[in-house]
Structure formats: structure tokens, C-alpha cells
Amino acid sequence: MSVIELWVYLSTSPLLWLTATLGAYVIADRLSQKLNRNPLANPVLIAVLLLMALLKISDTPFPVYFEGAQFVHFMLGPATVALAIPLVENLAEVKRNLVPMLAALAVGSATAVSSAVAIAWALGADNTLIASIAPKSVTTPIAMGISERLGGLPAVTAILVILTGIIGAVIVTPIMNRIGVRDWAARGFAAGVSAHGIGTARAFLVNPVAGTFAGIGMGLNGVITALILGLAVALLS
Amino acid sequence: MIEALLVLLAFQLAGEAITHASALPLPGPVLGLVLFAFALKMMPGLAEKVSGVAHGILRNLSLLFVPAGVGVVQHADLVIHQWLPILGALVISTALTLAVTALTFVGVRKLMGGQGAQNEGPTS
Predict the structure, then answer these.
(1) What are the structural domain ranges in chain B?
(2) Given A76, A115, A227, which is nearest B64 (Cβ)?
(3) Apex CA A201: angle with CA A148 and CA A125, to 5°?
(4) What does the pLDDT look like over B2-12, one tens digit per residue?
(5) Residue of A80, A91, A148 to mutate, interface with B, max B Cβ within 10 Å
(6) ipTM confidence
(7) What is the pLDDT of residues A185-211, one digit of tens each?
(8) Which long-range contacts (CB under 8 A, 24 or more apart) does A49-53 make?
């Protein structure tokens, strides 16, 4: 069998791209650890860039890549359920912060939607893009549903959500340090409300309490944004 | 490990089934999270079984977003074509949301006369 035949065989099997995904993540995570979890060295960002380069070089279309990567993607569901474990472990802390959390949720959720829409409009985005960007801070499955009801493109929203998560995970630490918020609960909650699961992943890397509050912020923001934007659409139409 | 996975999958499945049947505006796994949290409160023994695997998954949560992140290539044209409104809106709005959310959290707790942060983060 020639090298080319071997490549043709392997490159279309799920095994190759599943292995590549885990490999890229291990490299990215090691690098992030070596750099003391420096926010710029975000493991999601590094692994994604490595894999994009690999797909480009090997001329592999995304659907072929996803055949293998879907097994990793699938674990997002059980991982969401698993967030109940740190939630229950830190329940006392969560209960004590209930009122500040709900206040921060209301303000954060409103800011996320209104500022994204206003800035996109001011910078010349078309209406479809504005509708697609409105739920950008919300976890992907909820955001895609909202986008559709607003007249956006769910597939585009999925990408804007991922980009928001990566941006949020990179900037959250410098911003919190700049505004002088040191409390892990507040830092984590802000990461979850602003940057959903990728912000939550960043929070878990830094501190378990931050991770717990990020998970709560992500869940609550998804629900509240869906309810409020859903209501707005119903009232306007 | 298999038992733990079974528990997580079972709660996800229950969540998916209920949200589909009732048309709740919630993804199934999020309802699964809520159901699982109640179950953990009622059956403390359950936590012991699942805790190790759950923390293992959550420590590597970043990995699970990698396939979706690579998916950005599918609409690279759009991102390049409208890069200014996209990057401008995402960066500024996310920065603003982070700051406003954290400051509200800390501010409201202070207003309530709550004790200062018990979980002090980095000083710089």
C-alpha cells in the first residue's frame, strides 16, 4: 500500500480526526499550563488554530473532520449535567449569594444583548447579522433557537457564540484585575453570563468556586435571555 | 466510571425527554442538570459515585468546545466579510458585559451589608 493510499484510507476514518482533536487539546493544555494559565494561551483557541491549520494543509472538509470529532462534541451534554456536582458541593456559598447573583444576571443579560446589537448596528452590520449576534453570550443550543425566532441565521449564531466564548475566556482575567474585582464567585459568575461554556471552562481552570458560579451564570443567562427575547418577539409581531 | 457515565447520561436523557414533550425553552442537558442537582440533594450517596468522573470531565471542559470551535471554518467568509461589526461588537460587548456583571454582583452584596468576599482571588 502506498503512502497516498494509506492517507486516503485514514483521512476519511473517524479515528484519525478524533485522535487529532485529543492530540491538539493535549498540546494546547500543556502549553497553557507551561505559561501559568496565561489568559492569552487559551487551550480552546490554541487547539482550534492547530486543527484548522491541519485541515487546511490536508485539504480536509469540515464534515469529514466532524465525523471523528463528534464523539468529543457529544460529551458536552453529560458535562452540562455534571455541573450539578460542584453546584451541590458549593450550595451554601451559592445560597448566600443568591440576591447579588440575580441582580448581576439581570444587568449582565440586558447589557450582553443591547450592547451587541447597538455596536453591530453602529459598525454597519446588516439586519440578519444583528439578529444573529443578539444572543451571542448564550450557550449554543439556546442561542440558535433565539436567533431563528429573531430572523437571524442559527449557523452564523453558533459561530458568533463560539467566538464570544473564546474572546471572553481570553479577556476575563485582565478585565477583572483592571476593575479590581477579586472575589472568585463574582469573577466566575461574570464569565458564565458573558461567555457561556467556554468562559465556564476558563473559570474551572483557575478556581473551582469560580467554575461553579460560571456554570450557574451560563444556565441562568440562557434561560432568561430566551424568555425575554422570546417575549419581545411575541409582543412585536 | 461506567456507573458515573450512566448516571450522567440518564439525567441528560430525562432532561431531553421532558423538554421535548413539554416544549420548554430549555436545552435538555440544562434541565438534566437541575434534575440531577435535586437528586444529589435527596440521595447524598449518589455524589460519591459520580464525583470523580464529573470533576474529571469539568477539568477538561475546554476540550469539549474544540470541535465546535473548528466549525468556525465553515463560515469563514462571513466573518472575513463583516469582520469589523463582528469583532467590534463581540469584543466590546463581551468586555462590557463582564465588567458590568461582576461589578453589580460585588456592589449588590456590599449594599446588602454582606460580609466581604470569602474567596479572595488574585491581588493583581
Answers:
(1) 1-62, 72-114
(2) A76
(3) 35
(4) 999 999 999 99
(5) A80
(6) 0.89
(7) 999 999 999 999 999 999 999 999 999
(8) A50/A24, A51/A20, A51/A21, A51/A24, A51/B66, A51/B70, A52/B70, A52/B72, A52/B73
